Amino acid sequence: MLTITILILLLTCVISFTAFSNEKITSDLIFYPPAVTNRNQWYRFITSGFIHADIMHLAFNMYTFYLFGDMVEKAFIELFGNSGKIFYIILYLVSLVVCLLPTYMQHKDDYHYRSLGASGAVSAVIFVGIFLNPTMGMGIFPIPFNIPAFVFGPFYLGLSAYLAKRGRGNINHSAHIWGALFGIVYLVIVCRFFTNFSPLDNFIMGVRSYFR
Known about the structure:
By secondary structure, the protein is mostly helical. Helices cover about 70% and strands about 0% of the residues.
């Protein structure tokens, strides 16, 4: 069965692999702030999430997305019924935009800055998964054992903030942070208006039950 997660994964892989051998495609789709500022190419907020730097970048993002996306998509269908898939698609696409807004504000006139990859949207999906299942085990390389999701979440955000402050390397850690935070806020809002389920209460109860 072709789920929304699989369709997004396949589309991302096809576009990314095509872009690997075609610099024009990468140039046309990559997040390039001056192109947004001067030419109103707002679509780059979304299209940049469907291309990646290399195969390892693509593989890591899509493997992580598959693991959490499958779980979150099923949970959305349980929570929202027939509208679950729509809410899931909105989560993914809007998170691609939101995670890059701080980056855009910082680099809107920076002609040397470019960003690509689905990491911000993947972070949003991961943190929705964490709030839905806060006690599930999650691995962090090179730690040889799993840790609870509610421990992984703050660790991930703290590490991303530290690396973003250092500003080294080619990874947009800011997108990870804002994608994760958007995922939490989005889940809380849609549940508040369309269900009786409280993600915050679920998270707190899950953490409490872990220590009992």
